[in-house]
Known about the structure:
It contains 4 helices and 6 strands. It is α+β, with helices and mostly antiparallel strands. The chain has a domain at 13-59 and 98-151. GO terms for molecular function: glycerol-3-phosphate 2-O-acyltransferase activity; phosphatase activity. This is Phospholipid/glycerol acyltransferase domain-containing protein. It is found in: Membrane.
Amino acid sequence: MAPIRTARLTRDRDEDRRRMERLLARGNLVVCPEGTTCREPYLLRLSPLFAELAAEVTPIALETRVDMFYGTSTKPTSKVLDPLYFMMNPRPEYRVEFLEPVDTMTVADGHGHDDISHNIHVANRVQRVLGEALAFQLTEQTRKDKYMMLSGNEGIVKAKAKKS
């Protein structure tokens, strides 16, 4: 049901980097660095991987507004129902705001572009920009932290082995 092409990431940094670079070579790429959705007005800490792959990123503030049903499961096997729950609302709504591009190449605090602390700085800057646009509170919690608190797993959906 997504209006944009999506690709599943593996949570393996090197493999995800290769996949994202391959997709970027074919054109623009939409990355959700937070990695998940949240029902409350909080923004999880962003992964810095996106800051390594392009000279510029355009943050997009996306907020879901619902009246009755939340389409944001934490249980991996239930995620397939999320779009159905969202559409069951009497007036489901998305608010989308394209924000000013962020230069990922700008050297901050004396760190080079390939330096991990620079990439974390860029990710934190993008998190602040998104938080301000959405009026969300920033957190230090990661996606993994959230899933461990809510459902006792890391939120990783494992592919089922095919029967021979």
